[in-house]
Structure formats: structure tokens, C-alpha cells
Write a structure and sequence with these properties.
The protein has about 120 residues and is an all-beta fold. The chain is about 0% helix and about 55% strand. Strands 2, 4, 5, 6, 9, 10 and 11 form a seven-stranded mixed beta sheet that branches.
Amino acid sequence: QVQLVESGGGLVQPGGSLRLSCAASGTISNVYYMGWYRQAPGKQRELVAVITGGGTTNYADSVKGRFAISRDNAKKMVYLQMNSLKPEDTAVYYCNAENRLWGPGGPSYWGQGTQVIVSS
């Protein structure tokens, strides 16, 4: 079983920065892809960024060049550095861990989410 706890959300002005953290507990290893998703009011949850156990990253087009995902396997931590924030980045951000030992579709775990509001 894997537990994920996000932190670091809050209110920030447009153009500002935030760093989200996700603390993982349980059996987490390099076979897990770690990702950040977000869900804005009235919209579906969408992938923001994902990082493999080996450090390969992938980003949604809307955040490329502004956001950076990283992970510290020893500490079981995942981070999302968000720069040049825009009002459209406002959403609840969720941490996700997906077991990729057998490929896509493995067991997937979610945190409770952290709210990010970008507003002046």
C-alpha cells in the first residue's frame, strides 16, 4: 500500500512561483511513475507532469517551460516547481504514484490534493 501526502499549495499572484511537495510512504521504488495532476472547477482531472524512476520527464503543453517535476527516491519525495503562474493554473493539484512493473495500468495511488489559487 502507498500513501501520498501533498503540501505547498496556496494563493499566489500571477507571475509568481510555488513549489508543491508530495511525501510518499509504503512500498515505493523506481518502478513507480510519479505524477502531478490537476483538476479545475468544472473540468476533468488532467496530467500536468510525470517522472519515471530513472528521471525521464513529460509535461502537458500548457506548463512546458514553466513547471519542473523532480523526485528524490531516497527520501520518497516528489516535487513540482511552478513558475510564471497564470490564473488558468488555478486547480487542486494531486500527486499520483503508478506501479509500472508490468507496464501501464498497474496499481495507482492518489493523494488528497492541495489547492493552488493564482489570483491578484
